[in-house]
Amino acid sequence: MLLETTYGKPKNYQKGKSLVGRPFSIFKIFKMRGSSSPRFFIESTNLAVDYHKELQSDLDAAMIEIRRNGIIVHINVKLQIFEWMIPYYQLVLYKTNEYFSIHAHGRFLQFTLDKSHSEHLKFINKLVFEKESHMSQYHFIDGR
């Protein structure tokens, strides 16, 4: 679910909050050592956020917030702000040496891993752990 949350736009958070769940408690956030990511710089996307690689600036970045049942990707493109809410059961993550990408709903968002690679790697590991711990409470037919 992609919402434009630029200042002055009407917001419909209730549907999104039910999709990804409430934020963690302060105690859980301290135990996790934070629930949001450092800034990821956008490399490419097929989301409807009016992003153009040739017009890229330092404002084109995203932050990921971990929630109980999914994640919220806060995307800043030029002067617009978007929130992409993804439940864990639809979230697919890919990481190579140069890029990290998030796929869901037939859409993707690809980030560059460059300067603060170690901070990004810590957050990616935390995200994978939270997804696996959430998905382990369900029993799948294929034996996973």
TrEMBL record:
> Please, which domain of life does this record's source organism belong to?
Bacteria
This one is known as Uncharacterized protein
